[in-house]
Structure formats: C-alpha cells, structure tokens
Request: fold
Amino acid sequence: MQINIARLVAKRCHAYNKNCLALGGAKNHLIAVADCNVEMTALDITNSFCGCAGQRCMAASNLLIIGKNDTLIEKICQKAKLLIPGRKKNQLGPVIDQIAVDRCKRYVDEAEKNGAKVLLDGRIWITKKK
Reply:
C-alpha cells in the first residue's frame, strides 16, 4: 500500500516537473544537511539505530545526506565500530528472537547483493544455536 502511494505521489510531482523522493515503505528516515554538526549528528544517528538493538519504533532505518558528506559517514562508522554486544550499559543488546536475527541478516544480504557497499558488517556477531 505505501509503495503504491509513494509511486502516485512521485508521478504527480514529476507531472509538474518537481523533484521528488517518495520513501514508500521506508520508515524512520533521517535527513542530514551539508552543514550539520558532524560529531553531534553522528552520535545521535548511532544512538538512534542501535538503541534497543534497533527494535524500537523510532530507530533510524534510512539516512539521506544532502550533498556529499563523507566525514559524517566515516564518523558514524567510527562510533558504530565501538559498539560491543552485551546486556550492560552502553552495549548493544540482543534482538528479540532468531526470526529477528534472520530478518536483519537477510536485509544486509539483499542490500549487498543489490550493489550496496557494506562499510561495517555486524553479521560477524551472529551465532546460531544448533
């Protein structure tokens, strides 16, 4: 349903010669502007996507950076590299169940298969119980 609505919105915008990015089906998207405070933005983004292991309603799922800002991407990766799995304060807790683990892995696998470049790979944390 959301994707159909996004297509309709995009089609109407393009009919009026307007640029449009319709994120149908995407949730919790963030936008970083070119002159953002890189340190603060990277910290906020990292806290958003990793809080509650990303399983809360407002966990960042998509980031759109206006303009080129490799420094922001590098800083987010630096902060994310510092995360360690665990259940203590400032650790990245577990996802809810094996179904969620499999879904997370599938998202990364599919993105990579479709050409995405993985900058920091959390799949190394996955251990399946036999």
